[in-house]
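Tokens help. One example:
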Amino acid sequence: MSAPKPRVVLGVSAGIAAYKVCELLRRLTESGHDVRVVPTADALRFVGEPTWAALSGNPVTTQVWDGVSDVPHVRLGQNADLVFVAPATADMLAKAAHGLADDLLTNTLLTARCPVVFAPAMHTEMWEHPATQANVATLRARGAIVVDPASGRLTGKDTGPGRLPDPAELFEVARRVLARGPLGRDLAGRHVVVSAGGTREALDPVRFLGNRSSGIQGYALARTAVARGARVTLVSANVGLPDPAGATVVRVESAEQMRSAVLEAAGNADAVVMAAAVADFRPAEYRDAKIKKVAGAGPEPIHLVKNPDILAELGARPHPGQVVVGFAAETHDVLANGREKLARKGADLLVVNQVGEDLTFGRPDNAAVVLAAEGDPVEVPRGPKEDLADVVWDLVVARLKPISG
């Protein structure tokens, strides 16, 4: 007997971004979820009922009076494994925060006992208005996950924060929240900083010293933290991946730029996870013009100097309660080198993995051993990088001090 399909209520409020949610719905249904679309009446002005019904394979209604004998305004929320509202307009956030229930979607939100996710989309001024921010804070305090909007082109000529994140990234949020279940919001109210990718140290305008890091593990850490309720700052170095929905992405190139961005973001962070591959050295001299080959002569030697050690600097900073996690990519003597690095860097946790040809870099899977300043090592067998991310956050959560107040 096959397992029942996860039941998702996809709420749609009246925003122009509703057309993007058709792609989110398609991804949910094609991956085996039973989706019931519950739009507001005005949302149907943007995407009509036949589209939602055809894509979901389920009836669509906006009113509590349709099918009264089935008590849909109670049953939908009671039976759902996830309620996901996208786009969530300023009006919808206000209604949800204040417990208003004037249609089927708002009634469903009041009866839901499963995880609830809101993906806001609106103009920048509306998103940044104190009333909206207060409503978001209220919803988060109650345990809802509110995914911060992306920044980019809005309707008309406007640009700024308020854009609905990419549907593929919203699907990843939904998938991770469902995988964690009702107990998965253990990072709610926390600010975490994650670094990802590989730094590049410029030799001249066209060349650099770099490494093979793809950023996949760091992005998995960021996505997983968002799905567990955290506010996430992702410092990304030379990564060609889509922005994780809900994360604030700060782009850098060099180790010195990463140091500045990480230390600034870490000032009020509960945890910092340094998953990026930061270059240990950089060229002592930067050439303003392209270095040319000289006929009959060999290449000039490249003199290197040390880059700042960001992880050691984080470990040495007096920041009570902050959990610092490092990553160590080793080619040999993995555990011995990892233990030495953990002691030297002053981190709370160190994720050690073996790297090499066709290992770790650029792959969707990873295997690692997590070392702690105290306690036994935690072995993580090879599997999706999101699984390793969850193990890391589990260990971080166990070390976080309770939120005061």
Notes: The mean pLDDT is 90. The two ends are 48 Å apart (CA to CA). Residues 385-399 form the longest helix (15 residues). DSSP finds 13 helices and 19 strands in the chain.
